[in-house]
Amino acid sequence: MKKNDILKALDNLGFTVDEFGGHCYHFEYEEMNYLYNYDESDENFLFLSIPNIFAATDDNAELLMPVINQVNNIIKYAKITYAEEMVWATFEYPMFEWVNLEELLEFAIRVLQSAAHTFNRVLRGDFDTEREEEVA
After folding, report:
1. pLDDT in tens, 53-98
2. How far is Cα of residue 3 from the mean position of the Cα atoms in its chain?
3. Among 111, 118, 35, residue whose Cα is nearest residue 69
4. Contact, 3 vs 38, CB < 8 A?
C-alpha cells in the first residue's frame, strides 16, 4: 500500500489532509492534531501520531518517565513517546494487503485519542488502574 492509498482513505473518512513538510501529512479530529508520516523505505507501514500532547519543562521532566511507562503498560497498539521536551502518542502498524485501510485508520485514531487522554489522566492522578480494569 502506498501513501496515496492512505491519503485517499483519510479523504473518504472526511478528513482534510494537508502536506506538512517532506513526508508528513496533517489532519485534525475532535480538536486534536494528527500526523501521518510516510516512510519511502517501508511504504507498507502505517505511522500515525498525535504530536505535542504535553510539553516538558525542567520542573516536570523527571515526573514524565513513570507516567509514560504506566500509560504504555495500559494502552495497547499505541505508545507514548518523549523526545525533544515533547510528549507524543504514536501508532505503528503493518498494512497487509488484506487490511481495510479505512477501518484501520478509524481504529488508529480511536487508540491514539485513548492514549492521549489516558496520559493526561495518569499525569493528573485521575486514573485508578484497578477501577479501570473492573469497568473494562
Report:
1. 999 887 887 889 999 999 999 999 999 999 888 999 999 998 877 8
2. 18
3. 118
4. yes
Q: Where are the alpha helices (DSSP H) in 42-100?
A: 61-74
* Cβ atoms < 10 Å from Cβ of 33: 14
Label residues 99-127 b or e (16+ Cβ within 10 Å = b). Answer: eebeebbeebbebbbbbbbbbbbbbeeeb
Q: Which residues pair with 46 in a beta bridge?
A: 93
Buried b (16+ CB within 10 A) or exposed e, 64-95: beebbebbbebbeebbbeeeeeebbbbbebeb
Crossing angle for the helix pair 61-74 and 101-124, to the nearest 10 degrees = 130
DSSP state of 126: -
44 phi, psi to nearest 5 deg: -100, 30
Choose among 102, 104, 74: nearest CA to 89.
Answer: 74
What pLDDT does 131 receive? 52
Domains located in the chain, CATH noted: 3-135 (3.30.1460.70)
Element (H, E) at 46: strand 45-55
